[in-house]
Amino acid sequence: MAEVTLRDVARAAGCSVATVSRVLAGTRPVGAETARAVRAAADRLGYRPNEVARALRSRSTGTVGLVLPQITNPFFPSLVRELEHALHAEGRAVLLADCDDDPATEATRIAALLDRRVDALLLIPVDERRSRDAVAAAAARVPLVLLDRGCGPGVADSVAVDNAAGMALVLEHLAATGRRRPCFVGAAGTASAAVERRVAYAAGAAALDPAAPQRTVLGDFSVEWGRAAVDRIWSARPDAVVCANDLIAAGALQRLRQLGADVPGEVAVTGFDDVPLAGLADPALTTVRQPVAELAAEAARLLAHRPAAAPIPGPRRPVRTVRLAPELVVRGSSAPADGGSDPRTTP
Amino acid sequence: MAEVTLRDVARAAGCSVATVSRVLAGTRPVGAETARAVRAAADRLGYRPNEVARALRSRSTGTVGLVLPQITNPFFPSLVRELEHALHAEGRAVLLADCDDDPATEATRIAALLDRRVDALLLIPVDERRSRDAVAAAAARVPLVLLDRGCGPGVADSVAVDNAAGMALVLEHLAATGRRRPCFVGAAGTASAAVERRVAYAAGAAALDPAAPQRTVLGDFSVEWGRAAVDRIWSARPDAVVCANDLIAAGALQRLRQLGADVPGEVAVTGFDDVPLAGLADPALTTVRQPVAELAAEAARLLAHRPAAAPIPGPRRPVRTVRLAPELVVRGSSAPADGGSDPRTTP
DNA sequence: CTACCTCGGGAAAACGTTCTCCGGAAATTT
DNA sequence: AAATTTCCGGAGAACGTTTTCCCGAGGTAG
After folding, report:
1. Nearest beta carbon to residue B98 from set A49, A50, A85
2. The whole model's pTM is what?
C-alpha cells in the first residue's frame, strides 16, 4: 500500500501501462470502455502519479525557483504570496531560496536550483552589478524573469514598477500641497531601485524648482539609516523628507518624533513600496504603492510565454521589459500643513 | 553541451558509468588513478548530477515542503529565513506553500507536495482542529514537524515556544511595574497559540490577584481587531492591555493614541512574538520574543532524526514535543508610570 | 478482392541515476 | 603452491513515467 504505480493500476484495470498513462494524461484518445475501467481502478487504488518519474521522463519538473535577497524585507512577503498563488494555479511548485543579501550566496542558490532542474527562475537580484554574471549564466539555461530590480541591460526579461513615475507622483503631490524645500533620503549602491529612485528624484526636484539647492543623502534601505539620515539633514529644516522606501521613512519618522518635529505640520515624510507597516506608522505614511498582484501576474505571464530554452543558442532573443504604473497613497504623514484633509487619505 | 551526463563523463574518463557514479558519490572506494581521471573529466566537462534522476533512483528528493498559513503574517518571514538556511546547509531545498489561511487550500498544497515526493514536511497548521485530518494523513506518509502551532495531541512532532511561560513573563513584569488592572485582548478560535495564550493569561492573572475581575475580549490576530478591541475595553480604564500578539498590540496602540490615552503613563501595552514592527511602534512595544533561530534549528534537528517513513506502519512511535523558552523584551510601551527607566529597555 | 487508412492497444525504449551482481587480478592465508 | 579473501571495475537491472514504434481489426475506397 506504500506506493501505487502505473503498473498496479494497469494490472487492476486489465490493460497495459501505456494505456493507463494515456488515459490519465489524456495524451491520446482511448476507447471509452477501457478509459472508464482505468479511471475506476486508479481511483480505487488511490493512484497518485510520481512527479519525480514524470519529471525525469518528460524533462520538465513543473517547478519554478524563486530567488530573493532577504525574505525579511517587508516588501517581499506579499510578492512571494502572489507569486506562489499564480504559480500554484498553473500546477507549478515553488522552490524558495533566500540569499541573505549576499551575491555569493545568491550564486550558490541559483546553481542548486538549476541542479534540481527547475523549469524556470524568478529572481530578485541582490545587486545590479554583482549579481550579473550568475544571472546571465542562469538565463542561458532556463527561462528567467527578473523582478522588482533590474540587472543590467539585456540580461533577461524583467518586470518592475516604474520607479521614476512613482517618484514623480510624490514630488507632484508635495508641490501641490505647498512643500517647497524637499530633501531626499536615498540608498547608495547599484541596486536598480536605488538608482532609479534617486535619479528620478533629482530630475523631478530640478524640474519643479531649478533654483532650489538639491539636498540628498545616501545610505541603505534600512530603518537605521532613516534615523541616522534625519540627523544629517534636519539642521537644514526641510519641509519634506522624501525617502527611497518605507523602511527609511519609518526610521525618519521615528527620529523626527524624537526630535520633537511636527509631522506633517512642520515637515512631510514620504516612503515608497507601501509595505504593511506604512499604514501603521504614526502618522500613517504617505507612500507609493507597488502593484504587487500585477507584478506577480505579469511575471508568471512572461514565464509562460518564454519558449523553453533554445535547443541551439541561436540569435539572442530580445529581452522583454515590463514597467507597471505605481499608485500614490496619500496618508497622514504628508497632510497639508493647513490641516485641510486630502480626500484620498486612508486611515 | 546542453546536458552532460554520467555517460559522457564515463566516456571521457575511459571507464564505466558505475565507476563514475562511485567516484562522484564516494559510495565505494575506487582506485586512486581512476578516481583522478574521473574527477578531471567531470570537471572539464562541467558535469552536474541530475537531481531528478538521482531522486527517482534513490527514492529521496532532498527536498522539504514548508507549508504555512500566510507568508504575509510578519512573524513568518524570519522563521522562513532561518528554516531555509538550516535546510540549505544540509543540502536540502525548500518547496514553499502558502495556504491563504484556509484549511482547504492547505490540504491541497500538502497533497501537491506529497505528489512531488518531498522527503519531509515542515508545517505551521492553519487551524488546530480543521487542519488535523490533512496533517495526520501527511504525517503517516513522511516525517512531519509542526511549527509554532500544535495540531491536537499525538498527531506529529512539534516545536513551539512556551506560550504559557511567555505570558507569565508579561504578567510578572506588569505586576512588578505596578500595573494592577490588566485586561487581555486575545484571539478566538482553536489555533493553539490563541488557546495557550489566553489560558495562560487567565491562569496568571488569577494567580496575581484572585479578587480582580477578569477582563478579556477575543477577536483574531489582526491590527484591525486590536483597534476595535480598544473601543470595547477602554471604558473600564485598564492600566495595562495585554495583547495576544504584536499585530493586535500595534492596532491597540494606534487606537489608544487616537483616543488621547497616555501610553505608557496611563496604560501599558504589551504584545507577543517580537515582529520587526514591534520595535518601530511609538512607543516601542514591550513584547515576548520567540527564539526564531532555535525554533528553526530544533525543527531541522527533529527532521534529521526522524527515521524515514516506517516500512510497515508499526506501533505508533511516540511524538516528540519541544517547547522553547521565550524572552521578555521590555520597551517603552510598558515603562513604569513613574518614568523610571527599565535597564532592559531597548531603543 | 485488394489496398489503404484509422483506431485502439501493447511491447519496449528511453530519461540519468544508483546499486546489485559478477568476474578477474592481486594480496593474503593455509 | 593452493585456497581464500580483498580490491577494482564493468554489465545491467532497477526507479516510474512518457512516448515511439508496431500490430491487428475493422472500415472505406478503388
Report:
1. A85
2. 0.92
How far is the first Cα of chain B from the last one, in angstroms, to the nearest whole number? Answer: 57
- Looking only at the bridges linking them, the beta strands covering B327-329 and B287-289 are antiparallel
Question: In Å, what is the separation between the CA of B31 and the C1' of D1?
Answer: 29
User: String of b and e for B253-292 (b: at least 16 CB within 10 Å)?
Assistant: bbbbbeeebebbeebbbbbbbbbbbbbbbbbbbbbbbbbb
Nearest CA in chain B to A275: B72
Placement of cell 495595562 in the chain? B240
d(Cα B194, Cα B197) in Å, to the nearest integer?
Answer: 5
**Could you read off the pLDDT of B135-178 as tens digits, one per residue?**
999 999 999 999 998 888 889 999 999 999 999 999 999 999 99
- Which chain A residues contact residue B109 at CB under 8 A? 88
- Report d(CA B34, CA B223) in Å as an integer: 65
Among B37, B30, B28, residue whose Cα is nearest residue B10: B37
Side chain identity, residue A264: P
A144 in Cβ contact with A157 (< 8 Å)? yes
Please check whether residue B123 is in contact with residue B138, taking contact to mean a CB–CB distance below 8 angstroms.
yes
User: Which nt has its C1' nearest the CA of B28?
Assistant: D8
Selected for mutation to probe chain A from B47, B48, B64, B71 (highest A CB count within 10 Å) is B71
What is the predicted pLDDT for the residue at A347? 40
- Output A30-34 pairs: Cβ under 8 A, ≥24 positions apart: none
* CA atoms of A197 and A243, how far apart (whole Å): 9
- Beta carbons within 10 angstroms of residue B110's beta carbon: 25
